[in-house]
Structure formats: structure tokens, C-alpha cells
Design goal:
The chain has 154 residues and is mostly beta strands. The chain folds into two domains: 33 residues; 107 residues, Beta Barrel (Lipocalin). The strands form two sheets. Strands 3, 4, 5, 6, 7, 8, 9, 10 and 11 form a nine-stranded antiparallel β-sheet that branches. Strands 1-2 form a two-stranded antiparallel sheet. The longest helix has 23 residues. The radius of gyration is 25 Å and the shape is globular.
Length: 154
């Protein structure tokens, strides 16, 4: 009788624990009860996509752009030009204590176009208030512009 009572007590505790876990789990909807899940927190490393514009060419509109931010400090970018060509750039990045993301990138062409980028990283997976500017451009240079909010996609 004592074994049956102990087994019954153990099963009751197990069932109550399972029920408690289900009620406090992070789920969007449990029946009619809504639980909020915490927002994800992202590291700066990852793939970001968005668009860029050129200040001196407003009629060009916004064109596709992406960053791949590697943990070792490498930065790879891909953009589409106003002519529909794809341009890749490589470089390095860093982040300051106030979450300012900066990078220097250069095209794979010779001579290289060298550009600086800067924006504000937030741990919700975005780089916002981002700009770019030519540091060295042998083809006429002096260009600058903005990025849309760059959204981390992985």
C-alpha cells in the first residue's frame, strides 16, 4: 500500500511539474492565454540586407546592398549599381563601445575604390542611421550616400 501511495504521489508531482512548465513556457499562444516571448538578441556578426542610395543621384533611387560581417573582423559587401552590375567589396569592421559600427571596404578592381561605412548597431539585428562615403575613388570620387536600415537575416 505504501508503494502505491508513493507512486501515486510521484505521478502527481510529475504531472503538476509538467503543467507548470507548460503554463510558464515561452509560447505565443497557449489556448486562450497569451505569453510574450523575449525579443531575440543578435551579435553583430551575420548577414545584413537592405538598400543604398547616392546623395548626388537622387533619381537613381534605392539599390540592393548587403554586408557579411565576420567574427574575425572581415567584412564582405555586395551591391547592385545603377547599371545593374553587381559589385563586391572586402574590408574590415569594428564596433565601438557606443555601438557605432564602422568599416572600410575596397573593390576587387585595380585600382580599387575605397569607401568608409558607419552606422548604429542594435542587438535586435539592425544597423541603422548608416552612411557611406568615398575615401579614394580614381574614377571621379567624392560620392556619398545612405543605407536603409540594414536588417540581419541570419
Amino acid at each position: 500500500m505504501k508503494k502505491i501511495l508513493m507512486a501515486s504521489f510521484a505521478m502527481t508531482v510529475f504531472a503538476a511539474s509538467a503543467l507548470l512548465f507548460q503554463l510558464t513556457s515561452c509560447k505565443k499562444v497557449i489556448g486562450q492565454i497569451h505569453h510574450e516571448c523575449p525579443d531575440p538578441v543578435y551579435p553583430v556578426e551575420g548577414l545584413y540586407t537592405g538598400t543604398y542610395s547616392v546623395d548626388s543621384k537622387p533619381d537613381q533611387g534605392n539599390l540592393y546592398y548587403s554586408f557579411v560581417v565576420f567574427p574575425n573582423g572581415d567584412l564582405l559587401t555586395k551591391g547592385v549599381t545603377e547599371f545593374g552590375d553587381t559589385v563586391y567589396q572586402k574590408g574590415s569592421w569594428k564596433i565601438s563601445s557606443d555601438s557605432t559600427f564602422t568599416g572600410t571596404i575596397a573593390t576587387f578592381t585595380t585600382p580599387s575604390i575605397i569607401q568608409g561605412i558607419s552606422g548604429k548597431f542594435s542587438n535586435d539585428g539592425k544597423i541603422s542611421d548608416a552612411t557611406w562615403h568615398d575615401i579614394y575613388n580614381p574614377y571621379g570620387g567624392g560620392l556619398s550616400g545612405n543605407f536603409s536600415v540594414m536588417q540581419r537575416v541570419n
